[in-house]
Amino acid sequence: MSTESADGGSANPRIEVTETAAERALELLEAEDYDTTEAGLRLFVQQGGCAGLSYGMRFDEKPEADDAIYDHHDLRVFVDPASLKYIEGSILDYESGLQAEGFHVENPNVVSECGCGESFRT
C-alpha cells in the first residue's frame, strides 16, 4: 500500500483532487455517516462505454491492501493498481453549472473519448 499526500507529502502525486471536488466528496461521505478518517472515495476504471473504458467512483469504508492512497484536502482517495495505470496523472474535479453537475476526471492519458464524454481510450 502506498500513501501520498497533496498537503506536503509526495512532491509528485499520481492522482490529484481539486479542493472543490474534495469538499463535495467529504460532504457526501459525511451525509452517509462514513468515518472520513478511514473511509474515502474509490476511483477506478472499468470496461465499458463506446470508447472501451469508463470511470467509476464509489465510497469505501477502508482501502484494500494493494491500493494506492492519496490524501487531498482531507479526502482519502483509493485507487487499485490495475486502474492506476490508466489514470495516473489525472485530476479529479467537481463541476457545477447550468448544463451539468458532477465529478469529472481530467486524464492526460486519454487518446480519444466518446461523443458523450462517458468513456475513453488510452
TrEMBL record:
A Pfam family annotated for this UniProt entry: Fe-S_biosyn
MF (Gene Ontology): 2 iron, 2 sulfur cluster binding; 4 iron, 4 sulfur cluster binding; iron ion binding
PANTHER family recorded: IRON-SULFUR CLUSTER ASSEMBLY 2 HOMOLOG, MITOCHONDRIAL (PTHR43011:SF1)
Source organism, top-level taxon: Archaea
InterPro entries noted in UniProt: ATAP (IPR016092), ATAP_core_dom (IPR000361), FeS_cluster_insertion_CS (IPR017870), HesB-like_dom_sf (IPR035903)
Native source species: Natronosalvus rutilus
NCBIfam families xrefs: iron-sulfur cluster assembly accessory protein
Protein name in UniProt: Iron-sulfur cluster assembly accessory protein
Domain Core residue range list: 15-118
Gene Ontology annotations of biological process type: iron-sulfur cluster assembly
